[in-house]
Backbone:
């Protein structure tokens, strides 16, 4: 290949050759013949660029590989000369004209041409970052043109990251006079596909420049203009809302995917752009709720509302691992109360587990929307909403950061709650108490004869609710492990910091989420099958979280051996379908956990029922797991270093021997 500007000049010439004759097509009224000619011309351009990309991949692989290991982004490396800027501006500007044509086929094929150019420039090694940044600029300015009804005027000063000059503003705006939401949706379809391409070839320079441009886009768009509640009536005539929802769908998809990848790849490498982008997206969440869910009747279809609820919950779940400030957690609790109250209000113990509730790919497949949309997808939303509600509440209640009485919301709008005291830790504790009370049918008196039984049943039902989604299961179990045990130093500190206006609220919280109750319920749910535990541990999705949960539970067991040993249950007259039964097992035993207590945890309640069976089953499961992990580790087949886990399992085994609890287990396979 010849000089650095050769690719941009070649693409520009190719577009002139095939698409210039179609430039006069009126975007709003293209005839069938014009549409056909345009599709043929776009196909020729696409085919030619893909051929060049194949040649470029072969000729420059080694050069690109060398660049990919040089370190962080150097903006000078990606800067374009004046001639290259002209070619780039002309290419994107010409294709934007066809992206505005009122034809789905033309828009789709134009998007594919833009994708092909991205791949060509990526293989070429120069011009790609400026190309992507320019796409974000076109999307931003398109939104500004579509929403002219605000009295707010802003001057966009484009960062000169890649040689893109401020003078582009007028040139771009002149090309976007007929832009609409379909145009923005088309641009974001391309940007989302580019990100998917980057995920498979995660080069630091390319990803960092992409994140830089995405962060710039988020920071400069006036998001409250997208909320139709802020648009004056004269703007209502500006066309159907569906293309805007399509754009918002692509945007939420992109943000969710970016947050997941940034969390795993970028932040761990201390990427400045990664951290800044996570902050910008977190700040954007309230505006996305207002844009996507403000008026559900505009969606024309309940599927769109369900889709946005799912994507927004997924985005919040992925952001929730970033150590969010108290003001953010408080605002999120308000969002959950406002938009997901219907999902969280139903009693967990009343939910009938759905055997085929697993999610494959998107949880909103077409088969779920034929007539009955109240299917398994709502269980998925319920799990996500309850997980976030519990996580945000516990982080606020047990955080040492003091939450101001007056909410400092990140949204430009007033606080969703009309009561400022909502933002206090005491108010958060009260809201959590109210939700838990609903799940026990308001029987929250610790002296009640049925109270402990209902606590046990709640724990069992809680495990069953999350058993279908392994990643969420371990996330929520790890969260509730943060609840301090009555009598502990942490419990007393929280009790003193948040005077409890309700009797024994914190004790009630600890009873419902007792770690031994949940751990035994978890093992019972998987039929005490150590192979299922092993599958969790070696899974790419659940391995780390499952290992962390087991380690923390094993430490609790070693500290409170009698509580674990004396746990007991009785058979339940009601059969529940197992959600995690392995095919090799034909065991169909189901249990309902009965009331239990220990001196350290239950303040005077006496242990009831015959002890031993749950302990024996748990003991066999955990010791069998120990030998399986040891065997794999000795053969270098375990995917990570399990030494810490093996040490804890060995301590558990020693406790069994020292306490005289091995029984016949030691005479069988385990010796």
Residues:
């Amino acid at each position: 290949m010849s000089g650095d500007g050769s690719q941009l000049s070649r693409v520009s010439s190719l577009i002139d050759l095939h698409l210039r004759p179609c430039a006069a097509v009126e975007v709003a009224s293209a005839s069938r013949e014009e549409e056909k000619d345009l599709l043929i011309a776009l196909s020729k351009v696409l085919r030619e660029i893909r051929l060049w990309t194949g040649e470029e991949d072969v000729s420059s692989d080694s050069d690109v590989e060398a660049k990919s290991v040089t370190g962080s982004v150097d903006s000078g490396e990606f800067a374009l000369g004046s001639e290259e800027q002209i070619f780039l501006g002309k290419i994107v500007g010409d294709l934007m004209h066809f992206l505005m044509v009122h034809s789905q086929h033309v828009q789709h094929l134009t998007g594919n041409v833009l994708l092909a150019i991205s791949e060509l420039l990526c293989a070429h090694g120069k011009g790609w970052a400026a190309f992507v940044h320019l796409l974000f600029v076109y999307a931003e300015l398109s939104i500004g043109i579509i929403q002219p009804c605000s009295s707010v005027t802003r001057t966009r000063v484009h960062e000169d990251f890649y040689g893109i000059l401020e003078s582009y503003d007028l040139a771009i705006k002149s090309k976007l006079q007929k832009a609409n939401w379909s145009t923005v949706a088309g641009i974001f379809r391309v940007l989302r596909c580019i990100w998917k391409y980057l995920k498979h070839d995660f080069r630091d320079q390319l990803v960092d420049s992409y994140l830089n441009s995405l962060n710039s886009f988020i920071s400069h768009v006036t998001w409250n203009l997208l909320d139709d509640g802020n648009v004056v009536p004269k703007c209502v005539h500006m066309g159907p809302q569906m293309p805007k929802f399509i754009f918002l769908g692509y945007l939420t998809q992109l943000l969710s995917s970016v947050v997941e990848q940034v969390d795993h790849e970028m932040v761990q490498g201390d990427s400045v752009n990664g951290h800044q982008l996570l902050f910008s997206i977190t700040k954007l969440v309230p505006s996305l709720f207002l844009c996507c869910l403000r008026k559900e009747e505009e969606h024309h279809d309940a599927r769109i509302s369900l889709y946005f609820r799912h994507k927004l919950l997924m985005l919040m779940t992925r952001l929730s691992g970033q150590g969010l400030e108290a003001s953010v957690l408080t605002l999120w609790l308000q969002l959950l109360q406002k938009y997901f109250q219907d999902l969280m209000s139903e009693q967990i113990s009343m939910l009938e587990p759905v055997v085929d509730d697993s999610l494959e790919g998107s949880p909103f497949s077409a088969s779920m929307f034929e007539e009955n949309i109240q299917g398994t997808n709502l269980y998925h939303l319920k799990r996500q909403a309850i997980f976030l509600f519990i996580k945000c509440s516990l982080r606020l209640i047990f955080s040492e950061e003091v939450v101001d009485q007056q909410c400092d919301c990140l949204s430009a709008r007033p606080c969703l709650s009309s009561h400022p005291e909502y933002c206090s830790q005491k108010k958060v504790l009260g809201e959590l108490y109210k939700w838990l009370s609903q799940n026990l049918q308001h029987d929250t008196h610790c002296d009640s004869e049925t109270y402990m039984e209902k606590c046990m049943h709640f724990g069992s039902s809680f495990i069953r609710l999350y058993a279908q989604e392994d990643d969420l299961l371990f996330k929520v179990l790890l969260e509730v492990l943060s609840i301090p045990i009555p009598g502990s130093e942490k419990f007393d500190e929280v009790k003193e910091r948040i005077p409890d206006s309700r009797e024994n609220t914190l004790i009630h919280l600890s009873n419902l989420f007792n770690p031994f109750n949940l751990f035994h319920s978890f093992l019972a749910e998987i039929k005490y099958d150590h192979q299922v535990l092993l599958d969790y541990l070696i899974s790419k999705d659940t391995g780390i979280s499952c290992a962390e949960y087991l380690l923390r539970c094993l430490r609790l067991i070693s500290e409170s051996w009698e509580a674990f040993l004396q746990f007991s249950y009785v058979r339940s007259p009601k059969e529940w379908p197992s959600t995690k039964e392995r095919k090799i097992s034909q065991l169909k035993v189901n249990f309902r956990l009965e009331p239990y207590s220990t001196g350290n945890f239950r303040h005077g309640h006496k242990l009831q029922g015959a002890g031993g069976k749950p302990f024996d089953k748990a003991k066999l499961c955990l010791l069998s797991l120990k030998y399986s992990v040891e065997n794999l580790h000795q053969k270098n087949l375990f995917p990570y270093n399990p030494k810490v886990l093996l040490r804890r399992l060995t301590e558990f085994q020693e406790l069994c021997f020292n306490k005289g609890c091995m029984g016949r287990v030691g005479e069988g396979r385990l010796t």
